[in-house]
Amino acid sequence: MTTGRDLLVLHIRDERPHAPDYQRLLDELNIAAMRAFTDAGWMPTLLAAARRDPREVLDRAGDADAVVIMGGEDVDPRLYGGALTYPGSGQHEPEVDRTMIAVIQQSLDRRSPLLGICRGHQLLNVALGGTLIEHMGGHRGSGSSHFVRTRVAVASDEPDPAAFAVGDDARCSHHQAVRELGDGLRAVARADDGAIEAIAHREAPLLGVQWHPEHPDVAGHQLSKLVDRCVARATATV
What we know:
This protein has five helices and twelve strands. By secondary structure, the protein is an alpha/beta fold. The chain has a single domain, classed as Rossmann fold. The model has no long low-confidence stretch (mean pLDDT about 95).
């Protein structure tokens, strides 16, 4: 168990008057994540980046022992040369994207632990020069069910497969995915259709997962071990 360490959990915003149902969904995921982190011995702080000055976000990320970037709206396609309009494009958050990419670059430079979840996973790839598939099917629920269970296979060369050993219980809710990997990144896990479901930096303790380990049904046994994997990697590279 990790004890007495500060964890900064970044999300986009606390309010979405234009999308109250989506806000409620993200709130449920954030609550489950904060509970899981606390139970694992972390001292987590949830910070809405859209309400803060970018410099403050960077400073707080730099002061934390580890950073987690949560899910949310699609990454601004202008950041990776993607199509400006596509099915389900919705609203983008370009200013927050740039702030969080700066956080990722800072973590890379300092070799400090960082975990990206769903949108955070995609931002990690884009921050390092990778691209995204703008729209795909099969990884998001329909109607009132936002999530689908996806089987994830871990790469044979992954040195710590236990952190990603979720089998067919990866809770997915995404219509985008990694296309071309960013510099220094490798694919750690894939779905049956080949979609990249986890990425890791080859040298720095940066990790991204496309599924939602913070889902209330699985957060207690999936989430903290991914952050622990980042921390262990940081310790090993000191």
